[in-house]
Structures
1.
Amino acid sequence: MKNKILKVPKTEKEVSLWVNPDGMVKGSLFLLEQSHEHAGQEEPIEVLNQESPFVVVRLHNPEQLRFYNRTSIIRVEYPHRDSGEKVGKQTIIPCTIYMMDGSILEGKIHETFPPERARLFDYLNKEKSRFIRLYLSDTEVCLINKAFINYVSPADEAS
């Protein structure tokens, strides 16, 4: 039955996924055209932090649809273009993340926090979020599964 009326409109976002035990795979996540959490399109972190155990990924090579268990996804990277739209005042926290596979990821967390919860420790311990977002540069974002983090070290603004 191919009834397009029942189909939820989504957009594909190209990403690189590091999956246990496969390693890196290239594919696309499917994003809702309208987020349930904010104005505009759904973001990859919203898809990954959903409670359902599996996420749909369209692989590029070989071309196929897969349903990955969220607990097996180590991290997801994708290009980022700043829209300039900010909700509230963002706190920027530079840090280095040491992964269980030996990877070291350096970057900055850009998030809007309540003043009493604006520490790196608070962000890492945020409930109901399996993945955290780290800006590796002005143009690259990495979503990291907290279950695969060995430890995180705060970085100095000057370094």
2.
Amino acid sequence: MSLISLAGELTETGHRLIQRVYYEDTDFSGVVYHARYLHFMERARTDYLRLLGVEQASLAIEGDPEGLVFVVHRMEIDFKQPARMDDVLTIETTTEKAGGAKMVLQQEIRRAGTLLIAAKVIIAVINGQGRPRRLPEALAIKFLSAGQKIPA
């Protein structure tokens, strides 16, 4: 298995990650505990960055006041249907906006095509001192053109 398959794949609209539901993800009733969906979506966003060639550790160099850090500022989640142990989930992430000091991502979690979770995630871009910082244009272009072929 290649590392790219572990990190999912870039798609025409963004990123796709496949995730199995394990016992540890469920509550006493056998359905996925609501907070675990946040973990699934975080993994998908992290792998999305990884496949775009964005290394978060190198952006946020310790002690650099102008370092670049992404933090979740706001999240809206619609819980449509539950997932259960052993379900295979598809987490899809698309970039709605990337510019200024924020990014807006849409995330959906599906099981065999059925929508389980729909989320809007607003990411703030901050510097090493926690103050808003503009997203560099080169990074904005990467997010906005994810999965699309860019003319050379």
3.
Amino acid sequence: MKRTLPLIFALFALSTAQADEVQVAVAANFTGPMQVISALFERDTGHKTSLAFGATGKFYAQINNGAPFEVLLAADDETPAKLVKEGNAVAGTPFTYAIGTLVLWSADPKRVDNKGDILKKGGFKHLAIANPKAAPYGAAAMQTMSKLGVVDQLKPLFVQGENISQTHQFISTGAAELGFVAYSQVIKNGQIGSGSGWIVPGSFYDPIRQDAVILAKGKDKPAAVALMNYLKGDKAKAVIKSFGYELR
């Protein structure tokens, strides 16, 4: 026993020395799955994560202004590519970790029909969308309304959220009768869990390919590399699919 104790302590010291913490900027729509994945990642690897949730466009500006983020999980594939091109992210590291789905949703179980016809019929005072300049789900919402030919008539009713989380909050609290959110925010057991909603056909908007990338500040950082690898693994993929995302 006396011989094994020093070995145990040495192994513990080694694992502690190797443990690392990674600063992660996460698109707001991915809040739920990332909280689950983060807990699994920390348990399985010993590394720690520090998570910040928000709009991809705002994270882009913060990263350019020196924010300490080491990994970005964006809500699009354009922002990571742009960061690589500008030298603020590591070339070769971007990959699509999820493909998002847009939903027209209301907390009222009788408000939204399963074809989205309410957008043409009206009968509501407020429609919530995320800022289309900063949030890809907001841009997808605008594309959807444009395809339906209802942008002009609905624009005066817009209640704009800074990101998709705030947009969901507007609807869930009744500040807006309905609005566009990420499927991941309302899914439960493989379907819309409460209220009423219309899962917008993917042909109505550009694919919401969500890419992850190691940022310049995370280059050669063990926890950053480990997290990116973990996101590609079966455990993370199972979580991502359970929240209604598609995988590439």
4.
Amino acid sequence: MVESGVANRRTNRRGQATRESMLDAALTALASGDPGAVSGKRIAGDVGVTWGAVKYQFGDVDGLWAAVLRHTAERRGDLPAGSVPTATLHERVATIIDNMWDGLDSADSRAIETLRAAMPRDRDEFERLFPRTAAEFASWGDAWLATCTRAFAGLGVDPERVAEVAAFIPGAMRGITSERHLGSYNDLDLARRGLANAIAHYLRAEG
């Protein structure tokens, strides 16, 4: 019994290590920006295993992409926006903007963008073909709104305005980040500061 238990633990550790290798290979491939990287068989080849081995770990390609997204979320952790209780409204907004500025330039973020670009644009089709991946993305939206709600807790900010701001910040920051990647004559530090000022003003306004 003891020997069997030890053997099972070793097998489980090997299986977990294989799973981690597959996830890391998927992220590396996706972070390259190559649309061809969005392929389960490509990932299997990068790891040096068969597609059957990938299916054994994740079930299918939908399970693989959902696991990749979950893996990046676990590595990212909870966004520490406005974690200091004494921070002002403007300081909390600036923290969110700065965190997203750094995060959107990470390899994990580039991998996510590559995966998103390969998914169906129509939501119904996306959810039909990749239900687990779609569910993972949907859960991020809920978690992001909860993060923003916590960030402005205790300041008496209108929750509807927080929801509006939470809805547009990711897109706005992706636009500014795109300018950084493409090269821009605009002062992007000024752009970030202006965005933070505008958001803080909007959240502070009454009526």
